[in-house]
Fold this sequence. Notes:
GO terms for molecular function: malate dehydrogenase (decarboxylating) (NADP+) activity; metal ion binding; NAD binding. By secondary structure, this protein is α/β, with parallel strands linked by helices. It has helices at 20-24, 37-42, 56-68, 73-86, 88-97, 99-106, 110-116, 138-142, 173-186, 205-209, 224-241, 254-266, 274-290, 311-326, 331-336, 360-363, 372-378, 382-389, 406-420, 442-448, 483-492, 500-513, 516-520, 531-548, 556-562, 568-582, and strands at 128-131, 152-156, 193-199, 246-249, 271-273, 304-307, 338-342, 345-346, 393-396, 427-430, 454-457, 464-465, 471-472, 475-476. The strands form three sheets. Strands 8-7-6-9-10-11-14 form a seven-stranded mixed beta sheet, sandwiched between helices. The chain has a five-stranded parallel beta sheet with strand order 1-3-2-4-5, with helices on both faces. A two-stranded antiparallel ribbon has the order 12-13. It is globular, with a radius of gyration of 24 Å. Mean pLDDT is 94; it is low at 1-8 and 590-594. NADPH dihydro-nicotinamide-adenine-dinucleotide phosphate binds at residues 160, 162-163, 254, 275, 279, 282, 307-313, 341-344, 397-400, 431-433, 437, 458, 477-479.
Amino acid sequence: MHESSSTIHPAPLNKSRGQGMQNMRDPAINRGSATELRLRKELGMQGLLPASQAPLQAEIDRAHAAISRSCSPLDKYQAVMGLRESSWDIFYGLLSQNIKEFLPIIYTPTVGEACQKWSSLLQRPLGLYLSLNDTGAVMERLAAWPERDVKVVVLTDGQRILGLGDLGANGMGIPVGKVTVHTAAAGISPRHLLPIALDVGCNTQGVQEDPFYIGLRQKRAVGQAYDELVDELMMALRSRYGPLTLIHWEDFGVQNAFMLLAKYREQGFATFNDDIQATAAVTLGALLGAQRQAGVPKLQDQTFLFFGAGQANIGAAQLLTLALTQRGLSPEEARSRIWLIDSQGIIYEGRKERKGNLSPQKAAFARSASDAHLAQQAQTDLSKAVELVGPDALIGAAAQGGAFSERVVRTLTKAVRRKHGRDARPAVFALSNPVEEAECTAQQAYDWSGGRAVFASGTAFPGVSRRDGSQFTPGQCNNCLIFPGVALGCIGVQARQISDAMMLAASNALSGCVTAEELKDESVLPRIERLREVALRVGAAVAHEAIQGGGAPIEGQLREGLRGVTSKAARLHIIGDYLQRLQYNPFRNASAVT
Ligand SMILES: NC(=O)C1=CN([C@@H]2O[C@H](COP(=O)(O)OP(=O)(O)OC[C@H]3O[C@@H](n4cnc5c(N)ncnc54)[C@H](OP(=O)(O)O)[C@@H]3O)[C@@H](O)[C@H]2O)C=CC1
Ligand SMILES: CC(=O)C(=O)O
Ligand SMILES: [Mg+2]
């Protein structure tokens, strides 16, 4: 998306005779009845469309009406993703105008159901499948993908699909959903996006035994066979699409996630793990939003209890440590405010592990041996742990639906009131997806805390009712508020790496977007309806930090624009304008297609 290659997707026009039908089937060209008459003639599409030309808006409204006739969320998923394969402009026009309605369809929670049923869906959106059988031929397989100007690759191996476990090749729905959000939120042209599902086997018996299963029927590969395929892919991506292609890792198992991120960062790839880094930035953003509510102490005065010590919560604990050090705490002091619980209970030094040692990521947050007695007292009883630790914020990302019981929330509320007085409010973040894996619902958090919880969730919940009958809607704390902006910012300025400072900048920009009205309505994050505006602001902050940190060259127009400008606010504004000019807009003048 650098200025030398405009984001507005120039379609590879096929003008030879008899190719009209092929052009009709190209979602980059086809706009249904809104396809320009001149273009129809030029591309042999006359007769394949009704005579009159309608405005794009009419086609969007028509599509909306048709999709609304679908009965279940999954039907709606299939209908709307079918539209994506048919016309990008209609699909993204529809999405951008109705993001609140369609995000729960193309993304969590419905995309989770779509993945679970992926093998039996007749109509599946497109992405590239690469299996162990393709080892040695990955470059040839990449050639099957029609776009040459790919700038962001979203890659999964299907091992940890949301909180639904190992779904193997059925995990394809996730990278497809993520690229769709990259376009809908950040305006990254679909041409620049490539979703890939690596099929390395699957350890879920139910998936393997499904007669319709589309993937390899074998145990998940580990070790050399796995490493070789990923390595070959990474080299092929670099060679085909260039060294600055952004690699977005998604929904890997925890060990591979940390290993691959470190390995390919070290090898100089521009790469980030969404579940680790973007989740961290959105969680920190929510904590920053929470501390703006009356009754919540400043970040540096809080204690944090993370329930779950995987990619999401370890990433959040790491970024939170940085944020606390920026607020005057030493790294040791910062870590002393953080407690992590995994399936064995509170993590502490010298704990007897069920298998192997504590991972280095967990070990960095292990409580000292002097806290061991608390862990031993609590065992795996969360409410006991809350009572003993006395946290201000309880952050769940363990895919244990319902883990924040009434007793847990009541104990937490009592603990913060004991510490900070009657008006104190605890933060309760139920980040696990999809909805059935959430630690508690918004209404439960509110009811069980006597109306005091500052709540956010990974999947959106409907509004919460107060006793007086009024309603409010807590915010959605999902990495979709971060990853599109990160990608836009990175590819806009050709960032060579995604540093922690860039993720902190993303987080600060996100929390800076939250309005007083949103806080009043109990949302500590910007509303999802503002996804596009948020992505641009996050993108500008990320790009700015990449430039400041020396991790991105500034060239051409942007260099000219920034020359002599020293104020950060003015620089952010210029970068934001620059990124906006690169964005794909379905409502562009149709002639731009040619
Ligand atoms: N809102 C958002 O934007 C995001 C939400 N998520 C969601 O968060 C959840 C977790 O994701 P992720 O961190 O990547 O998953 P991981 O598999 O990396 O980690 C899961 C963690 O949960 C722990 N755990 C499992 N069972 C229990 C239990 N009974 N008690 C306490 N801890 C337990 C595991 O313990 P152990 O280490 O001992 O195995 C592990 O530490 C998923 O539902 C995912 O959808 C993820 C990313 C973004
Ligand atoms: C949102 C997301 O990335 C997840 O739940 O894995
Ligand atoms: Mg994920």
